[in-house]
Amino acid sequence: MSRHTPSDPAASGTCHDCPLIQRRSFLRDGTLILAGILAALGASPALAENRRITLVRALARTGEEHTYPVPAADGVSIDHDAQIILVRFQQRVYAFNLSCPHQNTALKWQPEDTQFQCPKHHSRYRPDGTFISGRATRGMDRLGLRHEGGNIVVDVAKFYRQDQNLAEWNAAFVTL
């Protein structure tokens, strides 16, 4: 009875028991799985570009003021450390608190709908922070900001709620 062994792969032309083949399959499959996971998490440069989301950190912090470069194009920039969202939309820049005004859950940007959404109760907001629908009863909380040279300075001490400071909330943006 002839038996195929890894030491004699030429006997049949194939090597089903060969550890080298198994390692290659494992590495190929593992690489494909890892690439799929990274793409799903947004690690792919093409996917990140389609989302138009940029993670940023302040260039400088002085007291309650955080300085950021003016966003180069329409899109969303998030500073997780400072809990600030910067949005450039239709030649204007807005600064928002990262939390949903309903129950302080971190908002998510939905690029396919060009809007923010609260993952907890599904409140939705336009890029300018205006409330669209859901459990929330007002727009996203805006922060005070000003244009200074090539930068945007966000003052987190100037916090505007649409239902309490409507005039200030409406004025809290920079026109480019």
Q: What attributes does this structure have?
A:
single chain, about 180 residues, alpha+beta, Rieske Iron-sulfur Protein, 2 domains, 5-stranded mixed β-sheet, 4-stranded antiparallel β-sheet, 3 helices, 13 strands, disordered N terminus
Question: What would your notes on this structure say?
Answer:
The protein is α+β, with helices and mostly antiparallel strands and 176 residues long. The protein folds into two domains: 12-40; 52-175, 3-layer Sandwich (Rieske Iron-sulfur Protein). The protein has three helices and 13 strands, in the order H-H-E-E-E-E-E-E-E-E-E-E-E-E-H-E. The longest helix has 22 residues, at 19-40. It is globular and about 40 Å long. The model is unreliable at 1-6, 8-12 and 38-51 (pLDDT under 50).
Please describe the topology of this protein:
Layout: H1 19-40, H2 45-51, E1 53-55, E2 60-62, E3 65-69, E4 75-79, E5 84-89, E6 92-97, E7 108-110, E8 115-117, E9 124-125, E10 131-133, E11 142-148, E12 151-160, H3 166-171, E13 174-175
Parallel strand pairs: 1-4
Antiparallel strand pairs: 2-3, 3-12, 4-5, 5-6, 6-13, 7-8, 8-9, 9-10, 11-12
What is the distance, rounded to the nearest whole angstrom, between the alpha carbons of the first and last residues? 83 Å
CATH H-tier superfamily of the largest domain: Rieske [2Fe-2S] iron-sulphur domain
- The low-pLDDT segments are 1-6, 8-12, 38-51
Q: Which bin fits the share of residues in helices?
A: 10-25%
CATH class of the largest domain: Mainly Beta
Mean pLDDT: 82
DSSP helical segment count: 3
Strands, count: 13
Quote the CATH topology of the largest domain: Rieske Iron-sulfur Protein
Main sheet, how many strands, which sense, barrel? 5 strands, mixed
Shape: globular
How many domains, in number, for the residues?
A: 2
Beta content? 25-35%
User: How do the SSEs run, as a string of H and E?
Assistant: HHEEEEEEEEEEEEHE
